[in-house]
Amino acid sequence: MRLDDTGLLTALHEGMFQQPLWQDFLERLRQRTGAVYTTLVFRPIDEDAIVELHAGPPPPAHIHNLFVEKYRRDPFPYRHMREGRVYALAELVEPDNVVHQSFLADLMVPQGMSDMRSVRVTEPSGVDAWLSCAGGRSIGPAVGALLTALAPHLRIALRAFVALEREKLRSTLTSEAFGRLNFGWLTLDARCRIVDMTAHVEQLFQRTSLLRRGRYDRLTPQSPMLDRELTALIKQFAADPDARPKALNLSRDPWMDMLVAPMRGGSVATGSTPVAIAYLSGDRWSQADRRDQLVDLFGLLPSEARFAWVIAQGIPISEAAQALGLSVETARNYSKRIYAKTGARGQAELVRIILTSVLAIA
To answer: What are the HTH luxR-type domain coordinates in residue numbering (predicted)?
Structure first.
């Protein structure tokens, strides 16, 4: 069998984006070879996990029950197969192995699978995959030649799949970390339209009116003044990619800031070209909420919590006293009691304790 243009390779390389994975490829391979079943089994980086994919008619109920209750898994020694070499069924079934002979007689032959061809491939990171075609008389040397020709393409597809899964994992972990820090980003094109963004920015749109996705996906601040400033900034970045980033305060209570920077190194994976990236960071809670949480967490009095939250922003005690209408002496007494209750040895340590407490992920 020649590896000609019958859509087999296209289905192989598109299979990593399917659910179930590689379903079209396995079905095309089954039809091409006349196999009863085609299977693709691979062991990811986690040695305890095995992904088993197949195409073919569902087995009769009694066969399925026998497989589950007696065997649980195909017993043949696939792990010992040499990488890239196609094996026939006779090379995997040991004549004196009772389990092998029983599996063949109980499960394979009754379903019309008297022969099989199987190949093992390994991608560079060490992930193994086994591609098999099992059936009757049609499963012979021609199917073996087809699997030999498919092996390098399967290796490439497996490598791309592993790389994609790793990037998904990294993206998920990064996104979770950003979420705990109330941090997110979005990219904007020259018309201030959103090109891409983290999930947390979408959540922000839902819970606050400070920013919204406007008409034609345009990022629209609530403040008209900020809207004009952001629009001018994006135009500047579109004209000059080396322009300086700029920080904008969106709200003081709850606190939210945005750093807008020119986008360096565009993406070919999006329809629009991003010219800027905006980093959003802020608090989901109001100052009143945070003061209540400080009371609960450290046993502060409401007046102490109010003062503690202000100086936790790094504001000097004298300025905090003036902002809250307190005398400097009263403010110093408050700070001593706050330090004692929180275990802080000064204002700098108080900032660290509060900002690294559970309030940071509340």
So the answer is: 297-354
